[in-house]
Amino acid sequence: MMEPATFLYTFLLATFFLYTTLLLLRKRRIPPLPPGPTGLPLLGSLPFLDPSLHTYFADLSKKYGPIFSLRLGSKLTVVISSPSLARAILREHDDTFANRDVSASAFVATYGGNDIAWSPNGPTWRMLRRVCVHEVLSPSSLDRVSGLREQEVWSAIRRIRERCGSPVDIGAEMFLTAMNIVTSTMWGRTLEVDKEREFIGKDFKKVVGDMVGLLAKPNVSDFFSALAQFDLQGIQSKTEVLRGRLDGIFERMIEKKRSGEGERAEDLLGVMLKMERESGDSKTPFTMTHVKALLIVCTVTNLIQHFPFLLGGPNGISKVASLVLCFSISFLWSEKSLPYYSPLG
Fold first, then answer.
1. What's the pLDDT at 191?
2. Predicted TM-score (pTM) of this structure
3. Once rounded to an integer, what is the mean pLDDT over residues 44-51?
4. What is the pLDDT of residues 95-119, one digit of tens each?
5. pLDDT per residue over 250-294, tens digit each?
6. Do 143 and 65 share a structural domain?
7. pLDDT, tens digit, for every residue of 177-234?
8. In angstroms, rounded to a whole number, what is the distance separating the alpha carbons of residues 110 and 291?
9. How many CA atoms lie within 13 A of 139 on its CB side?
10. 145, 268 in Cβ contact below 8 A?
């Protein structure tokens, strides 16, 4: 009979050889990664990231070529910097590369990624895309609320003109205008009383502003998946609190709509609630969770995309001022006039 110590050594040796063999076979089956910086153990290239990521990646592409890989914590990242490769990935092989990891805060904010931005490619995503393209964001739906958007633009112009001769924070004004446009478009006609609209709008703007800040904040949970459950920075818990406050605002709007108040409303909330009622028997229904997640995503993406890159320094500010002056003088201005104005580029 084999001695226990001998048996243990034999077992460990056999396990080691088996593990090594499987590892070598696995490496042979997996194609090699694109070239890229080695980085540090555990941290990867995180300590070397430049705040101007596009510049940092452009410099790396000069060294490693149009496609390269790097580790950001425990996450493998592949960067494409060639138009032909981008076309191949985004168009020719879109199904293969469509899915991506949801950031920890975005997962909480969108009710578990139940929105068009983060849903995995499949029946649910296709349903959400169909709802957005053909119903919520269709030209006819947007045209129905164009008057609300124009009203908010005129309000912004009046605010700026009233402060003629005094310094004006154009960035803050653009953020306020964007927020007003978003809220008016989503439920502007559900709240028919101006005071009520202003009261709810204030709370909504504060919550969304805080949520945008949390979504944009670097989160250790996004780079080290094993640490996400501990929420070391408290970002997920703070996002959950803000989402709860937004949920309360949405429930209030939905209740008003369902109770018949603002039934004539042609805002986006009305369109989505109609879709939610009509899709109950479909294989992939459009649920109330999808309604709320889309409301959050529409708001946040509008604020992130519309105005941070609009000004482009002092030259951009002077162009905005000229545009505002032009709009102020032209009493015939409407959205249809926009193609006749030069872009702020």
1. 58
2. 0.75
3. 92
4. 888 888 899 999 999 999 998 888 9
5. 898 888 878 765 445 567 888 888 888 888 667 889 999 999 999
6. no
7. 887 888 778 776 555 555 666 667 778 888 988 998 999 899 999 999 899 999 999 9
8. 10
9. 2
10. yes
Give kind and range of the element (H or E) at residue 75: strand 75-80
Pair (245, 187) in one structural domain: yes
Q: What is the domain range of residue 48?
A: 42-97
Look-up of token digits 């042609």: 266
Number of domains in the chain: 2
Instruction: Please name the helix (run of DSSP H) or strand (run of DSSP E) that holds residue 72, with its range, or none.
Output: strand 67-72
Between 318 and 299, name the one with better pLDDT: 299
Helix 288-306 and helix 268-278: axis angle, to 10°? 150
Placement of tokens 């990231």 in the chain: 49
Pair 66, 166 in one domain = no
Tell me the CA end-to-end span of the chain in Å, nearest whole number. 84
Report the chain's C-alpha Rg in angstroms: 26
DSSP string computed for 4-18? HHHHHHHHHHHHHHH
CA separation for the pair 137, 145 (Å, rounded): 11
- Whole-angstrom CA distances from 117 to 87, 138, 165 are 20, 18, 43
Closest CA to 133 of 146, 142, 124: 142
Residue located via tokens 């048996």 = 7
Pick the closest to residue 207 from 288, 89, 109 (CA basis): 109
